[in-house]
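re: ur question from yesterday

yeah so i grabbed the chain u mentioned. its 467 aa long if i counted rite. heres the sequnce exactly as i have it in my notes:
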Amino acid sequence: MTTYEKSVPGRRGFISEQSDVPVVSLASIMGEENLRKTPAALPELAETDVVRHYTALAKQNFGVDTGFYPLGSCTMKYNPKINEALAALPGFLGAHPLAPDGMNRGCLRLLAELEEMLCEVCGMEAFTLQPAAGAHGELTGLMCIAAYFEKTGQTGRKVILIPDSAHGTNPASAAQAGFTVRSVPSGSDGLVDPDALRVAAEAAGESLAGLMLTNPNTLGLFERHIVEIAEIIHGAGGLLYYDGANLNAVMGITTPGAMGFDVVHLNLHKTFSTPHGGGGPGAGPVGANKVLAPFLPGKGEDSIGRVRAYYGSFGVLVKAYCYIRTLGGSGLREASETAVLNANWLLKKLRGAYDAPHGEWCMHEFVLSCAKLKAETGVSAMDVAKGLIDKGFHPPTVYFPTIVPESMMIEPTETEAPETLEAFASAMLALYEDAHVNPETLHNAPVTTPVGRLDATAAARNPVIKR
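ran it thru and got these structure tokens back, copy pasting raw so excuse formatting
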């Protein structure tokens, strides 16, 4: 029920005693013509009604604090509460962005040290902390690439190559930055085919600006030809862009700089364990090598200029700083190794029932296919995902990447215990059995939630946003 449905005429919450502060007429401030002619039609509720209503809604939410959240490509790992407490210290929480630098020296020192840490983690020369989130970081990095080519008189370099398995934000960001996007097909092994890339680079010729690449890629596979890929792009005069969405698999082990990348964006709100979802909060710092560092926001005469007010998403930056300082270099490496171990353990548990089209091993995540299951039983990846809800798990990403039919993209992260992974694997295998024995139960799932399966297409095309 909505608060309007719970409304009772005349019911009120707490009413304070009459104030001795003189009453000021709103009409004298706003003008009589700007005031309502009738009172707002607000629900009439007691304080207990309001508290219980919103508490009940909150209990229906699902997050990493309430259960396993294996959302592939989004790294929904548990967020240490000590980071929240530290970010809420008065000196951080109460810092005002317009205060003189002399009054915010502690905050500025934290930001400077975070930039140095990220440079070491990524093998870059410099970092900017301004971008608000991943896609904003992509745009910033691409703007730096464009500025570099303009500075060097290569204004004709307007083609960005992007693998067909890339995140959807990659081509969108490239187009927004003024580039033309051309897709590079993946090989049968799910990796970028150097021969196909070479052909694409040669076809672009003097128009080639670069390649956007996620490594490990969106199939959870490490691009083992990365050195050759870098040589192809650089040899053709282009630059290599690193989508840092999957850094969680390699931090502390290798760096984008060592792989040959020129510019990188990170998702601090994913890899470095600060909460994200629902549109924020986020942080998408961008790092660059010596070639592109002068073009970063606030880094020199060739800077592309400010891309975000003040110092970026400061609270998120504080939490990421605390996460890195807590773990240290060896801890970051252990986190990556554990994430890879958890993913491979889970892949081995599930690949006998579900198809795993890209091999026996993965990095921090993997992609299953329900195409065979659907052909045999009529149960789709979406049906399995909805069935997981009834078993108490948040579903993994479905139908992405699009190059795998009926795909399910699963990322367990390093923060989950073996018992949780075992329970999830058991649930997935039980759903596989249900699909063969009683597929109708999965077509109707979920049945344990306040509402049943929603029409996602209709909701997207005709959203109801009034309440």
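noticed a couple things. The CA atoms of residues 95 and 327 lie 26 Å apart. also DSSP finds 18 helices and ten strands in the chain.
anyway ttyl
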